[in-house]
Amino acid sequence: MSGDAQPATSSGPVLFVSSVSSPSRAVWMLAKQVHPSLRVVEVDQGEHMPDHPARVPCFRDDANYSPPLVLYEGHAILRYLARGTPFYPDDLTACAIIDNVLDYQGRVLNPALTRGVMPLAKPTLFAMDDPEQTKQLVRHGQADLARSLRHLDAGVLADDASAYLCGPTMTIADLAVGSALMMLSHPAVQIDLAPFPRVQSWLARCTASSTWIGLPPSS
């Protein structure tokens, strides 16, 4: 057990997370900022216990909803917990801009990371039986990843007046995308962000913020 995670003993809203899961880390960071009293339970990935969900992150509230409210997609949990806060304000235009980045992450960036990074960072889970097929998968995935990073660098972050992905303040888009890109610094990956200077500066700004401080290191 690490960070502010607690044992799964009391009832009420609970957030299940794993420190090695990028989506978990994003919702964990958000919860610490906007719902500091929310009970957080850290679950080892692959751990199967009756009181723990099969997937993390997972938010469950059986105290205020009947049947219980259960959310098991990272972006859905982020939106639910952040609604009406600076991380995901009530303004429809602001939400649309944030959703645009989140949808891009889910549709383009995450698949590229899955193919180009995860077989190196977590080979027992993502590598293929044939080493040559794995190399080809990684090569194509990293080519897609480079295109995604160029889009962020030259498009989303092109306005130098915007410190973050969706404007001057940090939102759930920064938490989600930033958490995913932290995998690039994995010792088995080590993808250089120097060709993408705006992405590099933005990620450094995120990780230096108080929002990022206080979580256990990723594996």
Structural overview:
With 219 residues, the protein is α+β, with helices and mostly antiparallel strands. The protein contains eight helices and four strands; from the N terminus they run βαβββααααααα. It has helices at residues 22-34, 74-82, 92-116, 118-121, 123-126, 131-156, 172-181, 197-207; strands at residues 14-17, 39-42, 58-61, 69-71. It has a four-stranded mixed β-sheet. The protein is globular, with a radius of gyration of 18 Å.
Short description:
With 219 residues, this protein is α+β, with helices and mostly antiparallel strands.
Task: Please report the total strand number as a whole number.
Answer: 4
Total discrete domains: 2
- What is the molecular shape? globular
What share of residues is helical? 40-55%
What's the architecture of the largest domain, going by CATH? Up-down Bundle
| CATH C-level class of the largest domain | Mainly Alpha
- Beta percentage is 5-15%
Write the layout of secondary structure elements.
Layout: E1 14-17, H1 22-34, E2 39-42, E3 58-61, E4 69-71, H2 74-82, H3 92-116, H4 118-121, H5 123-126, H6 131-156, H7 172-181, H8 197-207
Q: Which tags fit this structure?
A:
219 residues, cytoplasm, four-stranded mixed sheet, Glutathione S-transferase, alpha+beta, 47% helix, Glutathione_S-Trfase_N, Glutathione S-transferase Yfyf (Class Pi), Chain A, domain 2, single chain, mitochondrion, Glutathione_S-Trfase
